[in-house]
Give the backbone structure.
Amino acid sequence: MNLLPGLPAKVRENWRPLAACVALLLLNVYICRELFSIEFIANLDSNEGVFVALSRFFRENFTDQRWLPLFNCGVPIENAYQPLLPVLAAAAGWVSGWSVERAFHFVLALTYCLGPVTLFWFAWEWSESLAAGFGAGLAYSLTSVAELAIPILRVSGDGTANGAWVPLRFYNLIHYAEDPHNLALTLLPLALLFLRRAMLRRSGANLVAAVLSCGAVVLTNAFGAVDLAIGGICIALALRRGLPILALTGLAAYSLISPWLPPSLIAHIGGDQWTAHGAFSGGSVTMLSVALVISVFGALWWTSRGWRPLERFSILFAPWMCAFPVAYFLLGITLVPQGNRYQLEMEMAVCLVAGCLFAWAIKNLNRSWRIALVISVLLLSIRQTKSFRHSARRLIQPVEITQTIQYKIVHWLDRNMPGKRAMLSGDVQFLNNVISNNPQLGGGHEPTAPNWMDLVAIYTIYTGVGPDERADCSIFWLKAFGVQTVTVAGKNSREHYHAVVHPEKFDGVLPVLWHEEDDTIFAVPQRSRSLAHVIPREAVSVRQPIHGFDLEPVRAYVTALDDPQLPLAEMRWNGNTHFSVRAAMKRSQVLSVQVNYVPGWTATVAGRTVPVHGDGIGLMVAEPGCEGNCTVELAYGVTTEAWVCRVLSALVALGLVSIYAFRKARYFLNNS
């Protein structure tokens, strides 16, 4: 009997899984529905503002994106963060006409709600079991396994210690701004689904989908790349085939996205990631833990040889996703960079195992026990839905942004010091480029910031050496990096972090530009407000300081910045990737520009190429060789590495289009 007359045959055949997807989607929409339309959330101390600022930048600079002048003294756009989430938010805002803040949260809410849907689809297609798919999706929607296993993660909707029945995935999204991480986990099941299809069927369409989806995961978040590599290997082991397809897909996917993640950036991230949340020590306890995880994995692989593929995959995937956060939180061992953040992967992996167990129970229990199980799950789901809804509502608290101290600081600077570099301490830096184009000394994503000395300077200014420290060292670094103003939160400030450990050190030393409540904006005395300076060649710092209190290599440079005998330089930006500097110079003098130097910057004078390089603190130095009035044009172009990545990306894109077109043409010919 046809229960759905008038619908296409494919829809009629798949109405049950489609209904399950809709049910999971609506369940999660109900839990977090305010997130779809909110602009600013009261939790301003998360770094969500960085991602919103990137969304704004992409929306307003569609054709001029190679260089981002806003963060960390200027960075290549690929160093800002993986671009997929900001690009999606920018596109949503452009299409809808919403503010960038609302568009960002709409995409974020949709990402959160679709996570259980994609997990369901992955499990259902592989197992052909609605019970396995829906069980996994429902568990992912309404449980927090990591909270049960790791007591320190147990929080309530308002951030206080509580029981284990709180939406940890949603809490991480709102409180810690795990925004790209959540998107990566939403896309991960789709990428694994298409990888499995490609390994089994080896059709062109599945290969194209696998390459695109895997590339999308990596363009979202670095954790997604690790998840994808482990998941792909587990799929191949579960199927007992497919490793060559996995390697081919991985190579093609990386080549496709390589302009956004070139090898040099991967090496840079690899070096910096171990500095966050502990390092891989390599000691005996750590190595024993690694050996234990590998042994468990090997034992599970051996004993699961006769299991069905999805069950085998889930039991192989889960130990790795659980080992990273469990080792970090319970054993104090860092097995991978930032192992604490794999708590979200742990949730997904365990829920997939739970879905397999639920399907086994539905299939093997007698009718009475099946009914009892379904009723129990239903009652628990109702209880959990209420609990999660309550927690989500408490987390999604709107804020009148203009009444916050963070906004007042940023607004004052935007109105009174437009275009001038500032050091914005604490969470003010996260909001700054959401509403302002003023550049910052910091503000960006530290593991991908290209200039190590920029981070050293920030750390030194924040920490100082003790309560009796004079402000001289901090002012020294502020001058060296062209900072015109510095914001300081006092002990009673509403700002969250109070990052400057000794906020009183600038009192009576730097001029006060603005003060409200317990927050102050100080002026940093500079001879020139320009970021370009004419200095003697011998004043260029040639040695990188050992630490933030090793000032000697930079002392001659900072002295030259205040030398009234040297001519002033006028600097003017023309877009984001080009600026010009005018000054009266001598041949013995060079041009220092307080913008990060990276390969790709070139300098010309009247069409003549002149040398440009970095100094000891990572800033740009041009040698125009001018005598008299001089105009130097500096532009950020495309490096050899970038050209190679672009060519590889174009070739892969052309290959994918050709595969798709060939498939369509063959289908047309076969059916004509």
About this structure: Residues 157-164 have pLDDT under 50 and may be disordered. Residues 532-542+550-637 form one domain. The radius of gyration is 28 Å.
